[in-house]
Amino acid sequence: MAVITRYVVVRNGIEYEPVFTDKKEAEAYDRMLEAAEQLADLIHGADLDPPVDDATVKAIAVYLAENGPQVTAILKGVKPVAALDQPDDTGQPVQTSPKSSPRSGKSKSKDA
């Protein structure tokens, strides 16, 4: 008779598939689900127009969390931009333009 240890990720009383035979893999999957939850909360708080249904938000959040290293590489070096600052004299928010990029399309060549 063989004894097999299996790890199941349970979040909020729900058992998730797959079942793992390695504890580290199960913990990594649990961390990915936690990241997906946080991403979904971020997306829900975005007040998107048009509104996005919960199933779509969850699918996008899980996809982003599963591909965390690629997402991190894409976002590396991105600085937060304040899209809306203080209201102007009319009470309307003023949209700020991002600072000009140092890359103006002109490149200096060492040969020139």
Task: Describe this protein's structure.
- Strand 1 and strand 2 form a beta hairpin.
- The termini are far apart.
- Helix content is 38%, strand content 17%.
- Helix 1 packs across helix 2.
- About 12% of the residues have low confidence.
- With 112 residues, the chain is of the alpha+beta class.
- The chain has a two-stranded antiparallel ribbon with strand order 1-2. Strands 3-4 form a two-stranded antiparallel ribbon.
- It is elongated and about 75 Å long.
- It has a domain of 52 residues.
- The protein has three helices and four strands, in the order ββαααββ.
What is shown here, in short?
With about 110 residues, the protein is of the alpha+beta class. It is about 40% helix and about 15% strand.
Please name the defining characteristics of this protein.
single chain; alpha+beta; two-stranded antiparallel ribbon; 38% helix
